Amino acid sequence: MAVSFIHHPAFDANFDPRHRFPMSKFSRLAEILVEDGVVGPAGYHVPAPALPGWLRLAHDPRYVDQVLFAAVPSATEKAIGFRVDEKVAMRSRCATGGTVLAARLALAEGLACNTAGGSHHAGREAGAGFSVFNDVAVAACVLLADGDAARILVVDCDVHQGDGTARIFAAEPRVFTLSIHAERNYPAEKARSDLDVGLPDGLGDEAYLAALGEALDASFVSSRPDLVFYNAGVDPHRDDRLGRLSLTDTGLAERDRRVIGFFRERGVAVAAVIGGGYSRDIEALARRHSILHRVAKEFA
């Protein structure tokens, strides 16, 4: 089985290095994967920007137009955490296109990984929490609309609840949402996923992996998916600036191994996105994100 990796130079919108959102992690991650031989001579699959029609499947058309025409209200930009200019709009379209491409490659090959994606706080009406478009929600809607998938499971292991995804699919029985997160972390007002696993502050590798195993079993029985979107956020790491859990590099790798392995052993396609991760040390952060792609390569 081949493992496909997706990247687009536009994933990095070149923010000021002092910005709270570590935008340069995307370009550094792509460089590291090539430097370390995780991505071979064939290189990356390069996605096309998400079509406006795709975006409108998961988001209010008015909000989509506001993003595409750089007319997002200041209150919404404040909720997102940065200005949504033309460069950010293109970055968000390309990241979403990357997740759509990852899903299609996963259905064809078994497993594919984006080097962006996981913007799970964006809801139907607007963005929030560093999330402009909810790439996983858009990709799931596209595949359902095209008839490429009939049952989808979202496994969200970012340290923050996938509230936007949960709300978008609250009335959609074909999509099952699982969120494993720090209960006391952002957002303050939680949504209701199909299965929420709220974890206490400071939880370490062993207890986390035990909770993960139970959640995977329960969500699989309930959803019986033909495709899984896996949000492999690294913000549960003990050194993350915005996390409240205490996973190690080894714990993150084992988490990724268990999630991917669980579904591949059952013949279910997995499309992975990198999710959240926050540090001023971009080199350390990008290498932490690369754990996902290194583990995925084990399944080739």
TrEMBL record:
Organism domain of life: Bacteria
GO biological process, one term: epigenetic regulation of gene expression
Pfam families named in the record: Hist_deacetyl (PF00850)
Cited PANTHER family: HISTONE DEACETYLASE 12 (PTHR10625:SF19), HISTONE DEACETYLASE HDAC1-RELATED (PTHR10625)
UniProt GO MF annotations: histone deacetylase activity; hydrolase activity
Domain Histone deacetylase: 19-282
Name of the protein in its database record: Histone deacetylase
Family named by the database record: Belongs to the histone deacetylase family.
Keyword Hydrolase included in the entry's annotation: yes
Keyword Hydrolase: yes
Source species of the chain: Jiella avicenniae
Family matches, as CDD domains: HDAC_classIV (cd09993)
